[in-house]
Amino acid sequence: MTERLKDGYDVVVVGGGAAGLSGALMLARMRRSVVVIDAGQPRNAPAESVHGLLARDGTPPGELLERGRAEVRGYGGHVVNGKVTTIVRDADGFAVQVGDQSVRAHRLLVTTGLVDVLPEIAGLRERWGRDVIHCPYCHGWEVRDQAIGVLGTGPMGVHQALLFRELSADVTYFSHTTSLTAEQSEELNARGIRMVDGAVTALEIVDDRIAGVRLSDGTVVPRAVVTVGSRMVARANFLTALGLRPTEHPAGVGEYIPTDAAGRTDVPGVWAAGNITDLTAQVGAAAAAGAAAAAQINADLVAKQTRRAVAAYREPFSAESEAQLREAVLGEGRHNR
């Protein structure tokens, strides 16, 4: 870690992407003690720019995160580089293990995102985020009117091909390991999308650019851009001790942590936002979800504080009143409960 953690916070945010920083910003502005713990592995790191984000379209991902960190720190929040290895319930909250240090949290916001698992095709991973892409809304404008190849690697392959057809008249669908229904074939034919059967084994690279797609029989189909649907898997191993495990997504595209509309998980005190729970969320949607979850966390803490205040008001010499007075005298924090 590059910074030391305090012993405890109102909220520990695990993951420092758009969702986590947006949530931390909301909480810090409400004078909550909050820390963002970030392992420094953003999903969009290979991409040159963030797109579809109003007033920040074209911003490099790293620059966007630096701006976010500065804003959180400007309101008194902490941002710490480190990896959370495990979290367990501890008395009134949670014990979060970060390296050789454990920090307490009354509430958790988990925004660790996901990992894109790509097919084992030579050259695919190396080109990921450059001329191997997955999302027409994130990167489509940048590859408009080029020769685009769509790999059929999952249930959304045909849908991808139809979306990219809006951006280029030259789209080829490679069935690879998938099979097309009669209806899907008709849709592709109707939109003028060429279909190529056979397993894809490699991408042909010339002068640091994709030149084509190689099939198992040696045929090379010229292409300039390849799109592929990854299997998206939530980064959530550290939540196992809390009983939170990724669930297979209904669309069959990966694994996620389910939440309700407010971002609450099945574990009381734990919220999640961003790609860990919404696999297809872009940066703007992830940031909005982080802010919304943070507002719910703050409301939950306010309700808890109010219950304690009412109990102390009714019984001025109770143990609850003594505890509140002790906190005030010892300076344990106005906003830590």
What are its keywords?
single chain; elongated; alpha/beta; seven-stranded mixed sheet; 337 residues; 8 helices
Write the element-wise H/E pattern from the N-terminal end onward.
EHEHEEEEEHEHEHEHEEEEEEEEEHH
Number of strands: 19
Whole-Å distance between the termini? 26 Å
Average pLDDT works out at 93
Strand content: 25-35%
Radius of gyration: 24 Å
Helix content: 25-40%
Largest sheet features = 7 strands, mixed
Unreliable sequence segments: 331-337
User: What is the general shape?
Assistant: elongated
Computed structural class: alpha/beta
What is the number of helical segments per DSSP (H or I, 4+ residues)?
A: 8
Account of the 3D structure:
The protein is an alpha/beta fold. Helices cover 28% and strands 26% of the residues. The chain has 8 helices and 19 strands. It has helices at 18-29, 61-74, 124-127, 136-139, 157-164, 182-190, 283-314, 319-330; strands at residues 8-14, 34-38, 78-81, 84-90, 93-98, 101-110, 114-117, 132-133, 148-151, 171-174, 194-196, 200-206, 209-215, 220-222, 225-228, 231-234, 247-248, 254-256, 270-272. The strands form 4 sheets. Strands 1, 2, 3, 4, 5, 6 and 19 form a 7-stranded mixed β-sheet that branches. A 5-stranded parallel β-sheet has the order 8-15-9-10-11. The chain has a 4-stranded mixed β-sheet with strand order 7-16-18-17, with no helix packed on it. A hairpin with a 2-residue loop joins strand 12 (200-206) and strand 13 (209-215). Helix 1 packs parallel to helix 2 (61-74), helix 1 runs parallel beside helix 7 and helix 7 (283-314) packs across helix 8 (319-330). The longest helix has 32 residues, at 283-314. The radius of gyration is 24 Å and the shape is elongated. Residues 331-337 have low confidence and may be disordered.
